[in-house]
Model the fold of this input.
Amino acid sequence: MSVLPAAVGPAAGGRLAGIRRSSISLRIGLGIVVFFAVVALVSLFWTPYPPNAQATGPFSSPPSASHLFGTDATGADIFSRVMAATVKDAGITIAVIVIALVVGTLWGSLIGFYGGWVDGLTLRVLQVMNSFPALLLAVLVLSTIGRGLLAVILVVALIPLPDYVRLARAEILTKKNWQFAEAARMIGRRPRAVLFRHLVPNSMRPLFAYAAVNASWVISTVGALGFLGLGIQPGSAEWGSMIAGGQSGIVNGQWWISFFPGLGIFLLALALHLIGDGMSDDDLLRHGH
Done:
């Protein structure tokens, strides 16, 4: 009587199914992101019409062969504007995530490794930061300092920063007494080298997974600020601003003016969430949870 290998048992079967699900999520998410990356790259060199040009066709005309996404109330080509907005919204999202990830990882790693009164003070500061509703905080700060590309990036990067700090801190606290860290100390590595050459690189995967999920929130928040007129210059080729520009036409059946930029936000946010979700599932499966 043959004995089935453990790899094909019920637990292994569930593990393999989980790996397949995470792989599918990653592939779908990456495929959509690659599509948007191509659109953004192409828009730097070509769009059917100048994105900011008005009267490129009839005013508020529905999608047609000459205007694939129709035109808005000024006669601007929505397809061209959606293409140009991809660069702007995706660029803001990338900048926000890079700032929050780098600052949050450094801050959280240092307090998790060294501890002390700075650690306690940081936790109190993070609690205060998290006590404000995210979008309300962004609106209040931007209303005070004024809108603009740099202001939007810095304010939106500030909001999720506590989560990056906490996650990095937790990873370092968990791993700083593991065998590989102890081995580095035993061969004479200085504390700073142990932290940045061993602990931080081995703690980045959960942070990258969270960054991908957080990026879906960022793209939605940037769109919301643009819709409220607190993002970059109103009327520019930016998805949130374009949605706001078309809201008055919805009651008249001019759905396409807001629909296509809204679809851009939805698809990119969905793709980023799928990537982060796939990375998180894969990380749990790798560690046998």
Summary: The domain at 6-286 is CATH 1.10.3720.10 (MetI-like fold).
